[in-house]
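Notes from hallway chat w/ T.B., transcribed later so I don't forget. T.B. wanted the structure written out for a chain they're using in a teaching module, and asked if we could keep both sequence and structure tokens in one place. Agreed to drop them here.
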Amino acid sequence: MRTRRGRIAAGVITAAVLVAAGSANPGAAAVARHDQVGHVLLISVDGLHQSDLAWYVAHHPASALAALAGRGVEYSQARTTFPSDSFPGMLAQVTGASPKTTGVYYDDSYNRSLLPAGTTSCAGAKPGAEVTYFEELDRNQDSIDAGQGLSGLPGSILSLTGSPEQLIDPAKLPVDPATCKPVYPHSYSRVNTVFEVARAHGLVTAWSDKHPAYDILQGPSGQGIEDLFTPEINSLADPAGHDWTKVNSLTQQYDGYKVRAVLNQIDGYDHSRSVKLGTPAIFGLNFQSVSTAEKLPSSGGQPGGYLADGVTPGPVLAGALDYVDREVGRFTAELAARGLGGDTAIILSAKHGQAPTIPAQLTRIDDGAIVDAMNGAWTAAGHTAPLVAFSIDDDAMLMWLTDRSGTATAFARHFLAGYSGSGTDIAGAGKPFTSSGLATVYAGQSAAAFIGTSTRDPRVPDLIGLTQPGVVYTGGTGKIAEHGGNADADRHVPILLAVPGAHSAVVTDSPVSTTQIAPTILRLLGLDPDALSGVRAEHTAVLPGRG
């Protein structure tokens, strides 16, 4: 391990020594009084790579991000969990656990033990259901208020409820066969969250994210977040029919609503600035502007993504990084203005990265055609039902099968290995592919083992395909990058931790995971990291060197 450090606050050294001393679970070690803060602001810049943060700080030394890095610990070898989807990625940061423990593999997945949405007669019903915890759940997914019925939108969106379960249509939820009742997102995760731990100690909590389905962050109690602001990002944003992700300036406008919510919370109000709650102990938001800038082929007449080197941001992405930097600067300025800078730790990370970053690597493949061909081959072999029950493919392939036998999983694996065709490159021209665009396929027990669980888990995919470099599964040419996979660009994200009292930068290449953010948050607040069941299950340690 190589660590570059300047002068570190005394509390940082104290906690690092506690970890080095070797407690049974370093995440459970006590916090010295002088090492505690009253508030933790967590910022997830979705799509941000560690290389993006390093590039931006180097090229913008007077920026807010550079200032934050200049007094923080930067973990240059941080990884998010696999699959690198938003749902498991965010849960990792607030539970201290990976999908093998949370049971959450994607925001759109399959569960063999639940009943399909809309089931009302549960006795004797056949289990097996798609679990759609994204915009499909909204009462009205075309509206940024998800169907609350606010007037004056989008300008009035800060009047959105802080209880997003009210915006979810229960008829669209999978059904628990034991109770014959809908399964809301908050009750789907198997482990509790930092928000629930904080609330149990009487602390205020808040969060802002992109769908009402982020009710999942409430944790199993359903009560973890006192003020949860979730404007729908995939709603209609302009008269042309774009949603907020299709034009980067619209994404920045959308993110701006969440920024205003956080600024109100810094000032001690709820997101709407109508109720005085006090500045939350744990609060924050996700930014989407970097993610859409990486995925869009173009926006506002400028190219999206990176330049040919795969490191230098193109004009849309450069603008998105500038936008995030300005908003982070607003947070730090407001904290200082309210006298909270010396009592607030800031953690900046990302739910996921995005791949590919090198434009020439891109190969877009229609995954729907692959699934149809596999099902056709299976039925042609004498089987009566399609083989694929559900598949989610972005830049990895996750499949749940109707037949889980060794014969079926071997058939699927061999079919994918032999499937070839033509996709499209960065310019939309034809580009041949082999092996369904996959480099490695895990099926059956090997798929479960890759996750770290067993085939007895009713939620684990039966097949996991890891893509060749640059492969993105999509039926069109509307995106040039995706996430969800196991590529370095999918998982190598930043973790930057700035605590009061630190006055110079520390960069450490100690390998860490975004799961370590959760116990670190509790440690900073003087709470016990072992209060998190995911921390106990995975022995997740606090981040080193902060400590």
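Follow-up for T.B.: DSSP finds 15 helices and 25 strands in the chain. Might be a good example for the class.
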